[in-house]
Design a protein that fits this description.
This protein is α+β, with helices and mostly antiparallel strands. The chain has five domains: about 1-75; about 80-160, Arc Repressor Mutant, subunit A (Orthogonal Bundle), CATH 1.10.10; about 250-440; about 445-520, Transcription elongation factor, GreA/GreB, N-terminal domain (Helix Hairpins); about 535-600, Roll (Chitinase A, domain 3). About 55% of the residues lie in helices and about 15% in strands. The protein is built from 29 helices and 15 strands. A five-stranded antiparallel beta sheet has the order 4-3-2-1-5, sandwiched between helices. A five-stranded mixed beta sheet has the order 13-12-11-15-14. Helix 17 (about 305-315) packs across helix 19. The radius of gyration is 41 Å and the shape is elongated.
């Protein structure tokens, strides 16, 4: 091939500078173009002085030899791209049994180093056809044990293959000693801990690392106490893992806390993964006052840290203090969006009596504060919108008037855009259909009020009173008692009590909606010129020629066996406003009926309730 290329150069068809690049392209058989990507050279035509190349999407592309020499980069046959094109099946088999071999092939294709993104791009999905993450985890473990690979801590840094083998112990210690600054040294110390079982002499390695860390801790304990405390945690973990005793005179956790540090300020400088360990260390250092400091930072902590604080309080018999603090912050609308987000995600029965409509009002207030303070993101708002069960659960047992107030507040709040606001309002309407008219402004006489007798109104009020003062509180006690029995997943008493709670709360909502619409009457203003509420109509059944009497009374006064019908019943609606001699038709239970009104009489006024008795008003019950 070289002779033929030299002849072409002598003939002036290509330049002499093109000979070596074209020879490399011809021998390798693969190439790369900056725009068209990887290509396979299928033919070399020295007569017409051109290559035929298969590019992705451009098969059989013809290219002048001189132009090819200037624009194409030769790809050697042992390059990962060439292997994929020439023997993909073999490469897949290699990937299944030899993870390091495949990684080495990719690294050597790029001069001995490549990033994880570059490796993934070359292997997925053609070579690694299934779970890339699982495959990579296995490969990483093998690379860390093999002395030829250097795996960086940062994903963006390249993995390096070196011909000379370096032991795991030498590699981790070299990187530990070369690290600049305590923060960087802690990252390398964490690598020593991860690879401890693969070290040849872990006791000697840990002893050297602990000595270095102790020197750093001493110099940082006053200037950077959070970093020093993190180093103490890692130092102790290393020593425990290696089974070594503590060094006499070294800086301890108590030494850091004895500097009168503020817990919140120190936690601000600690990584989130170390928050629980920091709280435990603080509790140990201040066994009598730790809970006060934890309560203080609860409302100023990120969501995850707020959860760690709450968990610590609960695990150490401080649940009452936690509940009292949450109740106060919520009722005063001072709870932060981060704390409320934790409570919304937690939503356990432990806080069932706190989780009510006031929590949602506090959430809206917190979101508004974040907007005022120009907080760029609001995880609480996003969570409220994504969790479709949250709002219904918070308002399920609420008083109807409380729900109406909440609906008005939501309509006026700038916390949500129009579409999101409509979504939340729809969730409220699903639980309390009665508020739909408040949202839409659509009201009709029939929807707005119910005319009822004083006697039936008293019965409904007494039922409501019995419900909120006796049956619901009794059910709450049943739930609390059943919860004390243990594992709620297999607690049948608890499940039964919770089901009964749903029934009671549903009936409570129904009664509240009815009592809100009800208008008591003695029907004293009834007239005999037409059938109205408070009249008795004598009718002739024109089908079977029977005479029947109907007393038309309030919406809750139906007693068909005694001839009393509610004005909203099908018969009552058919008779209303008709006069003597009128004929009316109506459907009842799928059958047509036809009556003629023969006479109308006014009923005696119904007794009014005792004026001295205080009427029962719907009142809110805490959720359980």
């Amino acid at each position: 091939m070289k002779d033929e290329l030299e002849k072409l150069a002598i003939a002036g068809k290509i330049g002499s500078k093109h000979i070596e690049p074209l020879l490399a392209l011809s021998q390798g058989g693969y190439c790369s173009h900056k725009s068209w990507g990887f290509g396979r050279i299928t033919t070399v035509d020295t007569v017409f002085c051109q290559f035929s190349i298969d590019f992705a999407g451009r098969p059989g592309h013809k290219m002048d030899l001189g132009f090819a020499a200037d624009t194409l980069k030769p790809i050697p046959a042992n390059h990962i791209l060439a292997k994929k094109a020439g023997d993909l099946h073999g490469l897949r088999q290699m990937a299944a049994r030899d993870h390091l071999g495949v990684i080495k092939l990719v690294l050597n294709s790029y001069g001995g180093r490549a990033t994880l993104d570059q490796i993934q791009k070359d292997l997925v999905p053609e070579v690694i056809t299934e779970d890339w993450k699982k495959w990579l985890e296995v490969a990483k473990r093998e690379m860390k044990k093999d002395g030829h690979f250097i795996v960086p801590l940062k994903k963006t840094d390249p993995i390096v293959y070196q011909a000379d083998e370096t032991s795991v112990q030498q590699r981790v210690m070299d990187k530990f000693k070369a690290a600049k600054g305590l923060k960087a040294r802690l990252a390398e110390a964490a690598e020593i801990l991860k690879n401890l079982e693969d070290l040849q002499n872990k006791e000697a390695t840990v002893t050297d690392a602990v000595a270095t860390l102790n020197a750093e801790i001493t110099s940082h304990q006053r200037t950077q106490p959070a970093l020093a405390l993190e180093a103490i945690f890692l130092r102790d973990e290393l020593r425990t893992a290696a089974g070594l005793p503590a060094t006499e005179g070294e800086v301890s956790e108590d030494s850091i806390w004895n500097q009168n540090l503020k817990l919140g300020q120190l936690l601000d400088h600690m990584p989130a993964a170390k928050h629980r360990r920091t709280l435990e260390a603080f509790q140990k250092a201040a066994p009598t006052l730790w809970h006060e400091a934890v309560i203080t930072i609860l409302n100023n902590a990120p969501t995850k840290l707020a959860g760690e604080c709450a968990t610590m309080l609960m695990q150490n018999n401080r649940l009452d203090l936690l509940r009292e603090t949450l109740t106060r912050l919520i009722s005063q609308h001072q709870a932060s969006s981060e704390l409320l987000l934790w409570l919304a995600k937690e939503r356990s029965d432990t806080f069932a009596d706190i989780l009510g409509p006031e929590v949602f009002r506090a959430m809206v207030s917190a979101i508004e504060r974040d907007i005022f303070n120009e907080k760029k993101s609001n995880k609480l708002r996003d969570f409220i919108l994504s969790d479709t069960e949250l709002l219904p659960e918070l308002i399920n047992s609420a008083d109807i008037e409380v729900v109406k107030d909440l609906t008005r507040a939501l309509q006026l709040s700038p916390s949500f855009d129009d579409m999101d606001r409509r979504s939340l309002l729809a969730r409220i309407v699903k639980v309390f259909p009665v508020v739909k008219e408040l949202i839409t402004g659509e009201q009709t006489k029939q929807d707005h009020s119910l005319i009822v007798s004083w006697e039936s109104l008293d019965r409904r009020r007494l039922e409501y009173e019995d419900l909120v003062k006796k049956r619901i509180p009794a059910n709450s006690k049943d739930i609390a008692l059943a919860r004390s029995y243990g594992d709620l997943r297999e607690n049948h008493e608890y499940k039964a009590a919770k089901e009964m709670q749903k029934v009671l709360m549903r009936r409570k909502s129904e009664l509240e909606a009815q009592l809100t619409k009800a208008r008591g009457s003695d029907f004293a203003d009834a007239r005999a010129d037409a059938v109205t509420i408070g009249t008795r109509a004598t009718v002739q059944d024109l089908v079977n020629q029977k005479t029947i009497e109907f007393s038309v009374l309030g919406a809750w006064d139906s007693d068909p066996d005694n001839g009393i019908i509610a004005y909203l019943s099908p018969i009552g609606q058919a008779l209303l406003n008709h006069k003597v001699g009128d004929e009316v038709e109506f459907d009842l239970h799928g059958q047509k009926h036809k009556f003629r009104i023969d006479s109308i009489a006014v009923l005696p006024p119904m007794a009014k309730p005792d004026e001295s008795a205080e009427p029962v008003q719907p009142e809110a019950e805490p959720a359980v």
